[in-house]
Amino acid sequence: MEINEALAALRALAQPTRLALYRLLVPAGPTGMAVGELAEQLSVPHSTLSAHLGVLRAAGLVLDTREGRSIRCRADFGRMDALLAYLSENCCAGHGACAPLRTCSTLFPPGAAARAPLPRVRQRR
Amino acid sequence: MEINEALAALRALAQPTRLALYRLLVPAGPTGMAVGELAEQLSVPHSTLSAHLGVLRAAGLVLDTREGRSIRCRADFGRMDALLAYLSENCCAGHGACAPLRTCSTLFPPGAAARAPLPRVRQRR
DNA sequence: CATATGATTCGATTATTCTAGAAATATGGA
DNA sequence: TCCATATTTCTAGAATAATCGAATCATATG
Fold this sequence. Notes:
Two copies of one chain form a homodimer.
Chain A: H1 3-13, H2 16-28, E1 33-34, H3 35-42, H4 46-58, E2 62-67, E3 70-75, H5 77-88, H6 112-115, E4 122-123
Antiparallel strand pairs in A: 1-3, 2-3, 2-4
Chain A binds a DNA duplex (30 and 30 nucleotides) through helix 3 and helix 4.
């Protein structure tokens, strides 16, 4: 990861609604949640939520798939892993003593959602 | 860690100068760097740097100690660990399958600087 | 095609953050 | 004490971000 990607990810998470939004998606795993479901749980107007979601998407932290009229969002754990690694880079004065960071991105690799027991859908855009 | 602490830490890191500042402190380890040294390396006016440093300190990411006329700053790795853990909390839909996150805070516990400073990381001038 | 539903874009407004010069504070030494 | 060095605080203008209603777009279905 390079600095501008890290900054985009940090800026995206550094806002109450967006952090709550992201943290709602974390336990939802590769199944994710629909946009309307998120707006309802967070009690935020749709236009406001949509703007926040746009920031998270632009930062690469959230991916989505259209399912009929609704859009299902999920956290991109690989991207979060990259951010966590970036934040600890060159730690230990380069002695290489830090254990590698790991999250469930290993357990739910990209594509897991498509293979999961969910209706077949196509990518947006 | 609770949400407001996480937000403060994320806001603190979500700014180019402050992220660069923090990343300068990471390889410096428990020895840290003086404020003036940081300002010089970042080519930022002292008042601007001081303001940014204040944000990082308020977020608990940077600790400092006065040494005569100068103030020596160092990254608080424990705080960063807590932030990283917060960002992956409830991952894996609560299956507890995520490996625990770990950084060198275990290797350099609080107080390490005073007792046993490591050899200084080479700095560019 | 007409209509309903889910989501985004467009605006204007309000709020927050960044920046850096000048002044102030803290420490050490002659 | 007086002076030099290191850092912070104060200030205010400039830049950026958040908010949300109304309009618009995309899709499904009768």
